[in-house]
């Protein structure tokens, strides 16, 4: 009885095997589609051995062009048969991707296992036939032979789909993988360039928009690397955080956050205008990450709570839409929509994958492509925005410069007015002292002389000498107060320091040249202050002043052999010091150059000003 039942089961199994259409392979076959040749069985027990599956396998046709079983948590056995009609042995490769755990068994027509192979995302890349994101299983077929290929597919917390799921000749398969790896390299290389750009922008400009731009790039790149198993390039054994898909969950939930933060900066959204919207967005972000932290703390898988996070992501996307509508039709809003619309559509397609059942691998390929387009457009937008900001800054700086120019012009006008006023007042005082007081003293001296004749017994000589001395002093003071148009910069400095032996002057091409009296007075005051500083603080034994004129440049060199000083410390401690004021006068008022070099062996000061001769 038992043997009869076993024979009957074997007969039924053999019937099912024969009922499934075989894939015809010739020596010239390079690639063959398996659509219409696939059958599957669900392993509800999750741990059935291959020998048991062969006995109970009840083939159900795969209705898609590739295995696609939605979000099923159970392993699925997929089977197809190959009939090789060639004259020489041939090696074939089954290529697929995106499967956490893949077991492949090759049997002959009598179900004897010829080859078994385990691979998938939970196995290191180095254990694969080819170290790439693609899963390959190669096997040899002999002339005029039939083979059955059984694959056990299992995904954790993710859609169970295998695309591509194609049979290649071994050479054609390697070529296909090389081409796909080239596309991956283009994506990774492009993202690396964007990443370097984002790091440079964030480092040099320290603005929030560049940090959010960098966050978008990092999330997109990490999603690609994790999904395509590049994590094994960095880890000997993948952390559970990656294996249970929580890493993908956190990254997927973080992308809308960075989009929102980037949009606020890119669209220049005012927090005051959108205060409630801004507060709602921050509450949603905090709730989202709090929920993720709690779930992961209790060792839960985020993908089991997808509807909850879809709500958070939907709210953030809606807030983004509110910002865009408020800023529409500004160029920034249009550009942001143009950049993010393709990738948004791709994300929506993946979100509603249970409806359309498109292969998740194709959706991810579209995500990579649209991400590149998005970042390219947003980078162009950032460059455009940066250019606008720089132009605005330039205009602002230009306006400030013009304002400063006007301010300095007015200051110079005021100084000139004050200088001319003081000049007139000094000349008037000098005239009054010389004419009025001098005449009065001369008359007093004359009266004393008359009195001396009338009263010779009185000593009048002391009084006459005092009056003579007072007269001479008043005359000297009046001469000093009077501004003489014939006094040059050279003569003023020589007369002022003729009694100080350590000050040595040298003049070149200044004998017959005159400048604006106001400028000469300013230069005389500056040079005098610098000499005074050296005399007071430098403890020097000599001060050399060289003044030369090579039209239109007037060069002034002041050098001493004193002890010098720390210029940076001095200017930092005394922001309103004489040196700071002198530098401001030279560089801003006179549009000249002011240089100081100070050390233990002395101080050298160089002043260069462009001046044209001024006929008096």
UniProtKB/TrEMBL annotation:
Residues 518-613 form the Histidine kinase/HSP90-like ATPase domain. It holds the Pfam family 7TMR-DISMED2. The chain crosses the membrane at residues 182-203, 210-228, 240-262, 283-302, 308-326, 333-353, 365-386. The keyword Transmembrane helix applies. Its EC number is 2.7.13.3. Keywords: ATP-binding, Kinase, Membrane, Nucleotide-binding, Transferase, Transmembrane, Transmembrane helix, Two-component regulatory system. The keyword NAD does not apply. It catalyses: ATP + protein L-histidine = ADP + protein N-phospho-L-histidine. PANTHER family: NITRATE/NITRITE SENSOR PROTEIN NARX-RELATED (PTHR24421), NITRATE_NITRITE SENSOR PROTEIN NARQ (PTHR24421:SF10). This is histidine kinase. It comes from Runella salmonicolor.
């Amino acid at each position: 009885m038992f043997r009869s039942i076993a024979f009957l089961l074997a007969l039924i199994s053999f019937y099912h095997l024969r009922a499934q259409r075989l894939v015809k392979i010739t020596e010239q076959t390079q690639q063959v589609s398996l659509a219409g040749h696939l059958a599957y069985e669900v392993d509800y027990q999750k741990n059935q051995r291959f020998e048991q599956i062969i006995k109970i396998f009840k083939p159900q046709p795969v209705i898609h062009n590739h295995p696609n079983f939605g979000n099923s948590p159970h392993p699925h056995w997929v089977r197809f048969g190959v009939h090789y009609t060639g004259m020489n042995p041939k090696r074939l490769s089954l290529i697929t991707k995106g499967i956490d755990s893949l077991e492949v068994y090759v049997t002959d027509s009598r179900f004897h296992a010829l080859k078994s192979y385990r691979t998938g995302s939970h196995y290191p890349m180095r254990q694969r036939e080819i170290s790439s994101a693609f899963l390959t299983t190669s096997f040899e077929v002999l002339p005029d032979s039939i083979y059955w290929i059984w694959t056990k597919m299992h995904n954790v917390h993710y859609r169970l789909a295998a695309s591509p799921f194609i049979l290649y000749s071994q050479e054609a398969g390697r070529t296909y993988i090389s081409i796909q790896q080239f596309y991956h390299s283009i994506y990774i290389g492009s993202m690396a360039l964007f990443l370097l750009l984002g790091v440079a922008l964030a480092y040099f400009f320290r603005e929030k928009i560049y940090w959010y731009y960098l966050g978008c790039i990092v999330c997109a790149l990490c999603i690609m690397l994790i999904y395509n198993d590049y994590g094994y390039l960095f880890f000997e054994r993948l952390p559970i955080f990656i294996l249970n898909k929580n890493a993908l969950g956190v990254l997927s939930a973080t992308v809308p956050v960075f989009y929102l933060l980037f949009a606020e900066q890119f669209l220049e959204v005012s927090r005051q205008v959108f205060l409630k919207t801004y507060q709602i967005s921050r509450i949603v972000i905090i709730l989202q990450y709090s929920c993720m932290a709690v779930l992961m703390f209790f060792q839960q898988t985020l993908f089991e709570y997808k509807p909850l996070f879809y709500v958070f992501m939907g709210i953030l996307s809606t807030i983004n839409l509110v910002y865009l509508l408020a800023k529409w039709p500004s160029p920034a809003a249009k550009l942001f929509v143009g950049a993010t619309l393709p990738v948004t559509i791709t994300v929506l397609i993946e979100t509603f994958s249970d409806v359309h059942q498109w292969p998740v691998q194709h959706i991810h390929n579209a995500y990579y492509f649209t991400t590149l387009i998005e970042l390219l457009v947003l980078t162009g937008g950032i460059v455009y925005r940066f250019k606008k900001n720089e132009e605005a800054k330039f205009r602002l700086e230009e306006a400030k410069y013009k304002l400063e120019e006007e301010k300095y012009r007015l200051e110079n006008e005021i100084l000139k007015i004050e200088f001319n006023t003081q000049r007139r007042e000094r000349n008037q005082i000098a005239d009054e002292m010389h004419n009025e007081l001098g005449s009065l003293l001369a008359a007093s001296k004359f009266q004393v002389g008359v009195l001396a004749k009338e009263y010779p017994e009185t000593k009048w000589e002391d009084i006459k000498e005092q009056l003579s001395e007072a007269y001479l002093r008043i005359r000297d003071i009046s001469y000093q107060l009077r501004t003489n148009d014939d006094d040059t910069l050279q003569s003023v400095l020589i007369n002022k320091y003729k009694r100080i032996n350590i000050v040595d002057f040298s003049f070149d091409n200044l004998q017959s040249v005159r400048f604006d009296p106001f400028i000469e007075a300013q230069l005389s005051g500056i040079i005098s202050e610098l000499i005074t500083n050296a005399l007071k603080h430098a403890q020097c034994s000599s001060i050399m002043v060289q003044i030369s004129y090579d039209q239109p440049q007037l060069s002034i060199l002041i050098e001493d052999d004193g002890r010098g000083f720390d210029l940076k410390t001095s200017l930092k401690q005394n922001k309103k010091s004489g040196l700071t004021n002198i530098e401001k006068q030279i560089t801003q008022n006179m549009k000249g150059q002011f240089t100081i070099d100070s050390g233990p062996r002395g101080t050298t000061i160089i002043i260069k000003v462009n001046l044209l001769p001024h006929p008096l």
